[in-house]
Automatic annotation (TrEMBL), chain A:
Keywords: ATP-binding, Cell membrane, Membrane, Nucleotide-binding, Repeat, Sugar transport, Translocase, Transport. This is Sugar ABC transporter ATP-binding protein. PANTHER family: CARBOHYDRATE TRANSPORT ATP-BINDING PROTEIN MG119-RELATED, D-ALLOSE IMPORT ATP-BINDING PROTEIN ALSA-RELATED. InterPro entries: AAA+_ATPase, ABC_carbohydrate_import_ATPase, ABC_transporter-like_ATP-bd, ABC_transporter-like_CS, P-loop_NTPase. Residues 8-244, 254-498 form the ABC transporter domain. One of its GO terms (molecular function) is ATP binding. It comes from Psychromarinibacter sediminicola.
UniProtKB/TrEMBL annotation, chain B:
This is ABC transporter permease. It is a multi-pass membrane protein. Keywords: Cell inner membrane, Cell membrane, Membrane, Transmembrane, Transmembrane helix, Transport. It comes from Psychromarinibacter sediminicola. One of its GO terms (cellular component) is plasma membrane. It is found in: Cell membrane. The chain crosses the membrane at residues 12-32, 44-68, 94-115, 122-142, 162-184, 213-231, 251-279, 286-310. Pfam families: BPD_transp_2 (PF02653).
């Protein structure tokens, strides 16, 4: 880092949307060869800032400098020409095309008569792939690659322009640990070539592992830049949310009631087999396991979305048959699904209507929906869950991830369920809202709800659960109480090692 | 300050664009052809739009629920032919409920295929367009259907009568719009239609019986078609087998002009009524300006495509965008 001319500088960027000041004079400086973390809660303005940088939004005020020359970014194409490239969280690749075609889409090398020059195309592609050290070649169909390798294709695409700055937006969201290592090597390589990297992530371990500096946004304002080596998680978190975050082990002990839900030898085809467990009133049972271990499928079966191929479900000691979500809801089972936007919410509908949807039949005065009854429910749960929205008329799609999740939770709490299943309660949610939702789950248990939490994040499972069920490949491997569980034993159980079957 | 006003205006246009377009339209035509704002002309346009309008009300439900209904034109021919045929065989008092029953059966069949069997609504209703046409021809034996003694029946009241000086097709259209408008915006069923069209998976996860809701939207559509068939039969007292041919596209055009989203989840009965009226006044205005009636086909569709474009442009804030 001898060169001190910033590769990229944003100065006093202001961007307002109707009713919201999304960016309020934000400045950011990226040096060549630096990995610079951009952090902030959802809704803090990170994505808006990056959209301004990428030419998707025009700022109301402020200037973008590339190597200290002011530029006006009018389109993503122009941003790319200026050497600013984005690796998005959601991949934008054509599954049916080859790696090479995806990388050079829109600028395929041509021969006479407009024919594609395949030889040059594959040659150029393989040369780029070689620098990335990946295990596939230019002719591979993108649809056949893992998510991690598809991300490598995106990165390769970025490298075709000899970038000045590369922006990674939550790149590790769907990567395994081994795949992350490869990604970090690529980032280190970019760094050594003098490319500036902006790294957007919620994951502290990664931030501290690979970045040089950390800039923090809060409520659309620039809150400061820290040298990674001289700070710690606590300081960063405080800057982000203005207070401390508690992620300790669950140690609360309150009275537990009777068994609310019992599952005996439940099976569903190849998805899971012989699953048995109980949940008591006042208890949080965490389900931990790898993606594909069958946890979500169990929840969906209990909620009537799948038909079990064997086994029993007992509610308050009585066997029940649940054939549809309507059955489940009638019996007091609620499910907060894992895919908030796809399964949890109707994004084009307002906050209130989303929240009251499962009980709209009961929200009536005569044949009509009663505005008053609905608003009363909405107000009650907005206050209870501290949902931040300008009003119930706001479209749910305009809220931040944390507030969206609270709408879904409010929707199911307002049904006053006996059993509440929460699948991935904080996926894609910023730290601040995360801890609020964790506290909420603990509170619900204290109030006597029987709660199941399915999560892929170990700290989360440890933090909220009274008991933990470890699953591997459709089977329950082991059950732990919160006193006896250790991280090692948990990891072994979900990897299929050291479960009851072996021990 | 100027910026704020501009933003406010932009938002007003985005939300009420269709209403603004309607007003602008009326003014332009009124200036071009003074006869356009003549009260008789206006009443005439509304009256001749009533049949299309009644059908569009039902299709609004189907479209908001996330599906299409291209069978309504052909189904309207069926209703018209059936009620005219049964009129002479059973008398009007029995013929009308029998025709409604049969039309609702067709709607239920489509609703079953699209709702419960989850078949693609475009394919199902396109197929039904053709199948129902065949059914109509089978019923009539291919002949035109006429009421034998047109002076001896009260059957004409739906198409030719007046209520308090207002032509009955307009009264029926207005009443049905009012009732369906209230159902869509004020009842749990209406809410579920928006939910199922907005995000069917999330609706299922919220315990909304998606299949039943979709099924019901096709029943609403069939009921509206039967009503339109009744007005048509009552007005002309006789009909060809193809009386509703091509109406499915005009109906869809009116619904889209009204701003209902083809992806489902958005639209209102009121806006559809405005869409119907715009379509009616465009066609009337063009005739008054002396264009041949077949020019309507071209102009109508150019305007619809423009409307869809401006609608999308208003949503994304610019006329053209590299991302959807």
């Amino acid at each position: 880092m001898t060169d001190t001319t910033p590769a990229l500088r944003l100065d006093g960027i202001v961007k307002t949307f109707p009713g919201v000041r999304a960016l309020d004079g934000v400045s950011l400086e990226l040096l060549p060869g630096e990995v610079h973390a951009l952090m902030g809660e959802n809704g803090a303005g990170k994505s808006t800032l990056m959209k301004v940088l990428g030419g998707i939004h025009q700022p109301d005020a402020g200037t973008i400098y590339i190597a200290e020359t002011p530029v006006v970014m009018t389109s993503p194409q122009q941003a790319k020409r200026e050497g600013v490239v984005f690796i998005h969280q959601e991949l934008s690749l054509a599954d049916e095309l080859t790696v090479a075609e995806n990388i050079f889409l829109g600028e395929l090398p041509r021969k006479s008569l407009g024919r594609v020059d395949w030889q040059t195309l594959y040659g150029n592609t393989d040369r780029i792939l070689k620098t990335l050290n990946v295990g596939f070649d230019a002719r591979t169909r993108v649809g056949d690659l893992s998510i991690a390798n598809q991300q490598m294709v995106e990165i390769a695409r970025a490298l075709t322009v000899d970038p000045r700055a590369v922006i990674f937006d939550e790149p590790t969201a769907s990567l395994t640990d081994a795949e992350k290592v490869v990604l970090f090597e690529v980032i280190a390589d970019l760094q050594s070539r003098g490319v500036g990297v902006i790294y957007i992530s919620h994951r502290m371990e990664e931030i501290f592992k690979i970045t040089d500096r950390i800039s923090v946004l809060r409520d659309g304002q620039y809150r400061g830049t820290l040298n990674t080596a001289e700070t710690d998680e606590e300081e960063v978190t405080q800057l982000m949310i203005g207070r401390k975050l508690d992620l300790s082990r669950n140690e609360s002990h309150h009275e537990m009631g009777d068994v609310a839900l019992e599952v005996r030898n439940l099976s569903c085809g190849d998805l899971f087999r012989d699953v048995s467990f109980t949940v008591r009133r006042g208890e949080v049972v965490g389900f931990y396991g790898l993606v594909g271990a069958g946890r979500t499928e169990i929840a969906e079966t209990i909620f009537g979305l799948r038909d079990p191929s064997g086994g029993q479900i007992l509610l308050n000691g009585e066997e029940v048959r649940i054939h549809s979500p309507q059955d489940a809801i009638r019996r007091g089972i609620s499910l907060v699904p894992e895919d908030r936007k796809g399964q949890g919410l109707i994004l084009g509908m307002n906050c209130r209507d989303n929240m009251t949807l499962p009980q709209v039949d009961d929200m009536t005065a005569g044949p009509f929906v009663s505005d008053g009854a609905e608003v009363a429910i909405f107000d009650q749960y907005r206050d209870k869950l501290d949902i931040r929205t300008p009003g119930w008329r706001q479209m749910v799609g305009n809220l931040s991830g944390g507030n969206q999740q609270k709408i879904v939770i409010g929707k199911w709490l307002s049904m006053r369920p006996e059993v509440l299943i929460v699948d991935e309660p904080t996926r894609g949610i910023d730290v601040g809202s995360k801890s609020e939702i964790h506290n909420l789950i603990r509170d619900l248990a204290a109030q006597g709800y029987a709660v199941i939490v399915i999560s892929s994040e170990m700290p989360e499972v440890l933090h909220v659960s009274d008991r933990i069920v470890a699953m591997y490949s459709g089977r329950v491997m082991r059950e732990f109480t919160s006193e006896e569980v250790t991280e090692d034993s948990l990891i072994q159980a979900i990897s299929g090692i050291g479960g009851d079957k072996v021990a | 300050m100027a910026e704020l006003t501009k933003q406010g205006l932009g938002r007003f246009f985005a939300r009420q664009g269709i209403l603004v377009a309607f007003v602008v339209f009326m003014i332009v035509f009124a200036l071009a052809t003074p006869r356009f704002i003549d009260i008789d002309n206006i009443a005439g346009v509304v009256r001749s739009s009533a049949i299309l309008g009644v059908m569009a009300l039902g299709v609004t439900f189907v479209v908001i629920g996330g599906n299409l209904d291209l069978s309504v034109g052909s189904m309207m021919s069926f209703s018209t032919i059936v009620v005219l045929d049964l009129h002479d065989k059973l008398g009007p008092a029995l013929a009308i409920p029998a025709m409604f029953g049969l039309t609702l059966c067709l709607g239920a069949f489509i609703g079953f295929l699209v709702g419960y069997l989850k078949l693609n609504s475009l394919i199902v209703t396109l197929g039904m367009l053709s199948a129902i046409h065949g059914l109509t021809l089978t019923w009539s034996g291919g002949k035109n259907m006429d009421i034998a003694d047109k002076d001896a029946t009260w059957f004409g009241v739906f198409g030719q009568g007046y209520v308090a000086g207002v032509p009955s097709p307009i009264v029926i259209f207005a009443l049905l719009a009012l009732v369906l408008g209230v159902i869509l915006s004020r009842t749990p069923f209406g809410r579920k239609v928006y939910a199922v069209g907005g995000n069917g998976t999330a609706a299922t996860f919220s315990g909304i019986p998606r299949a039943r809701v979709v099924f019901m939207t096709y029943l609403v559509s069939a009921f509206c078609v039967a009503t339109a068939g009744l007005i048509q039969a009552s007005r002309s007292m006789g009909s060809q087998n193809t009386v509703g041919q091509g109406l499915e596209l005009e109906v869809l055009a009116a619904v889209i002009l009204g701003g209902a989203s083809l992806l489902g989840g958005a639209g209102t009965v009121f806006k559809t009524v405005i869409g119907v009226l715009i379509l009616g006044f465009i066609q009337n205005g063009l005739l008054l300006m002396g264009l041949a009636f077949y020019a309507q086909y071209v102009v109508t569709w150019v305007i619809i495509i423009l409307a869809v474009w401006l609608d999308i442009a208003a949503k994304r804030g610019r006329l053209w965008s590299p991302i959807a």
